[in-house]
Amino acid sequence: MVKAGLEDVVASDSSICNVDGKEGRLIYQGYDIHDLAQHSSFEEVVYLLWNGRLPTQTEFDTLCKDLKENRALPAAVLKMMRDFPKTAQPMEVLRTAASMLSMYDADDLENDRAANLRKAVRLTSQIPTIVAYWDCIRNGRPTPEPLTQGNLAANFLYMLTGKKPDELSVRSLDIALILHADHELNASTFAARVAAATLTDMHSAIVAAIGALKGPLHGGANQEVIKMLLEIGELSNAEPYLTRAFEEHKKIMGFGHRVYKTEDPRAWHLRKMSEELGRLKGQLKWFEISRAIEEKVFREKHLYCNVDFYSASVYYMLDIPIDLFTPIFAISRMSGWAAHVLEQYSNNRLIRPRAEYTGPNNLQYQSLDKR
Ligand code: CMC
């Protein structure tokens, strides 16, 4: 029997990530996301996802050094980005520029694990540069040289604004990156694995993933959430807005999940961050509106919010432009995509399911002049 949307179909073995939808738990390579969000860093999680264990100090330092050394873009990619129409959406730019990167990659024609790890490092470092630089280019600002110090979150915020970011912003973004790093066979990761299973290259698989992430049912949802919050504008408008949305049978972005039947564990951290940032920045209303929406959607539809719901107000309060919310998801998920591509290559079989044919049979061909 066909399972619409492959719901609950197990399509692969994987040791990378366990999503326990009943208990609301998310585990990366054996470590609970709550532990990692509290104590770890994005760079450490990257190592964990790619290698199946936490790094030693030396391994951690080496990865951080490699990531820092690969932040710059090839000149040709930057030149091409400057020629893109200034109206191009950041996800379109990311998809196209990430694809270009393969032509300039030192390991372009290699597909062994060592070469793919080097490609994964370069892509993880270069994707934030593409996203930040595009915002500079489209707004006529200079593109700052990437920092040689600081973690990925600090460097990204610096390249985006040209200013040294404060510690709270860096730690908030770092936690958000940890939370978004992997999520088992979500649509974009599955797209990456399908591509990798043909033994195409890492960059092609990542481009497939970026295309899938862009959709509003996946990574695009966080942008739709902030648009909703801005449209609601004031706490008193939340209730009537939702009543109308329910009457019109609209989907409320940032709610529902294919796997979680209880609270998404990532939402807990993002909710807390949204409240903390709101208090510190004197913008608590976005948190308050979000809480009101969350309560009403749960009361009336019994739907829990997902990772995209509170990440929207968090990114907004970090002064990140709205159409960069989904690219930030890509900056983080790049680590998970790479882990899955590496895992797919390590034990590959072409992914080629079947379709239940529902079309007509036995039609007789008629030439054009008889139709
Ligand atoms: N608002 C209102 N109703 C909803 C929502 C929602 N956000 N989500 C699910 N429902 C209802 C849906 O209308 C359907 O009702 P009925 O059975 O009466 O037709 C029922 O719940 C099942 O929904 P579904 O769309 O068939 O569920 P799915 O498992 O195919 O889709 C989903 C999961 C995440 C695509 C969906 O919940 C949705 O569209 N949510 C809004 C978009 C969103 O927030 N996406 C981010 C997902 S989490 C991060 C990520 O993966 O990127």
Instruction: Report the C-alpha radius of gyration, rounded.
Output: 21 Å
Overall shape: it is globular
- Distance separating the two termini: 36 Å
Query: Oligomeric form of this entry?
Result: single chain
SSE succession: EEEHHHHHHHHHHHHHHHH
- Architecture per CATH nomenclature, i.e. the level-2 architecture of the largest domain: Orthogonal Bundle
Mean of residue pLDDT? 97
Contiguous helical run count: 16
* Molecules bound to protein: carboxymethyl coenzyme *A
> Strand sequence of the main sheet, in spatial order?
1-2-3
Q: How many domains, as an integer? A: 2
The CATH H-level homologous superfamily of the largest domain: Citrate Synthase, domain 1
Helix-and-strand structural type: mainly alpha
Enter the CATH topology name of the largest domain: Citrate Synthase, domain 1
CATH class membership of the largest domain:
Mainly Alpha
Question: Which residues form runs of ≥5 with pLDDT under 50?
Answer: none
Strand content: under 5%
Q: Largest beta sheet, briefly?
A: 3 strands, antiparallel
Approximate helicity band: 55-70%
